Amino acid sequence: MTPFGAKLRALRKARGLTLKQMAAALELSPAYLSALEHGQRGRPTPALVVQICEYFHLIWDDYEEMHRLARLSHPRIVVDTRGMAPAATEVANLLAERIGELDDDSLAALGRVLRTRRAAT
Fold it and tell me: Which member of 3, 36, 42, 94 lies 3.0 to 4.6 Å from 69 by CB, making a disulfide possible if both were Cys?
């Protein structure tokens, strides 16, 4: 499941909606919506994110959060380390090899480090 998919599912369930109900309202297939929730589809288009935000009447911070989560929800990413230090290539490869072995606490700690570094630049 992707961050966007998890949030989408939480919003849907909090409102007591079935996949079929939400898919019909958004004019999507239930199979597509399910695949989006479970991270089996690529990140949603910006237009679909807007449509979902409008459907749930999300504004301000929640609206921005949905767009941020969509941007960070591509289930198959490529990291290009050309021109970077050898350590960057090593870290990218180690992460690709071992991400499935990391527990929730380790993933959260790594995410905090990366978000903090990004905010500082």
Answer: 3
